[in-house]
Design brief:
Blueprint lengths: L1 E2 L5 E2 L6 H10 L6 H30 L1
Antiparallel strand pairs: 1-2
Helix pairs in contact: 1-2
Length: 63
């Protein structure tokens, strides 16, 4: 997991979504099961979109 100076976290290039979420959860104070479920609900679509954007940019750059 990458963390910038402002505290924003992002997955390392190629890091599995579930691995990123697990690392993020482990770096926080104890969270309830409901809070962890909510984080997964928020992170999955955001990370999927970021991954799609990276793939699209890579294929555009290759062309």
């Amino acid at each position: 997991m990458n963390t910038d100076p402002d505290g924003w976290c992002s997955p390392v290039a190629g890091q599995d979504v579930e691995a990123f979420i697990a690392e993020f959860v482990a770096s926080r104070p104890p969270l309830t099961g409901a809070e962890i479920t909510e984080l997964r609900t928020v992170f999955r679509p955001v990370l999927a979109e970021a991954e799609h954007r990276a793939v699209t940019e890579a294929s555009t750059d290759a062309a």
